[in-house]
Input
Amino acid sequence: MVLVVSEEVRDAIDARRPVVALESTIIAHGLPRPRNLQVALELEDVVRQEGAVPATIAVLDGRPHVGLDKEQLERIANEDGIRKLGHRDLPLAVASGVSGATTVSATALLASLGGVRVFATGGLGGVHREWTVTQDESADLGLLARTRITVVCAGVKSILDVPATLQRLETLGVAVAGYRTERFPGFYLSDSGHPVDWTLRSPEEVAGVMGAQDALDGPESALIVANPLPEEEQLDPGLHARVLADALHACEERGIAGQAVTPFLLDYLVRHTDGASLSANLAAVRGNVRLAGRIAAAWAGA
Ligand code: PSU
Ligand code: MN
Output
């Protein structure tokens, strides 16, 4: 088995204690140094405060890890040349012995292989604007259509075409529920402007849906729990609209494509909002990680 599950995570899974998977792309490619390491440690702490075990996921020297120690987290945060790995990159990274941070798609796959059912992130990837020209749709969506995992997120990144992404999730058969909201969250914004069909109001209700997924035994698809950040912590919507328009323009002008698009846009927003988008991003991730801890606890008790 190439997968390395840390002893703490393995013990928790064996004893049916709560575990929350965390992605590493946000650490290596989504946040500036040295803030990224502080955040990585803080997120693990939030999971622990909820009585769950954190399992940050990454590939180190060709070995996929579920659960990192402090030294390993430091490598992901500070080493140069840490690649960005979607799920399709995993065999290539393993065979060539490289180190990389995992996106939502690779994290969800490794978490599920390691026996972890609950996963927290900031915002999912999805269908990019200009999709008709670039065909850029994050591999996150296809993987979530094939993986039985519960993902707590603040919706999909607002740099995307949100209604097209919601449509793709419907087509792919991925369950989506708002957490205590009838509106689909907008990542940096509490409300993307689009409704959700289902609303769940407690960790126990989420665990109930997870149980129903297993009982129905349909396709191995995910459950997306869309958790909005509180309105008082969101990015100013006017500022968001203005800077995002500039960011998309700059991206096109510089001919940025493929895997580089998402990190470029997120970084552009941080730099042109005086860090306000970073605060909103972190607030969203923190809230998602906390909720994921509670859901994992409810699931372990179910
Ligand atoms: N959410 C964040 N920051 C990030 C990402 C999500 O707050 O950096 C990452 C996730 O790992 C997600 C990836 O899976 O961006 C999507 O990239 P792409 O569009 O290239 O699939
Ligand atoms: Mn992409």
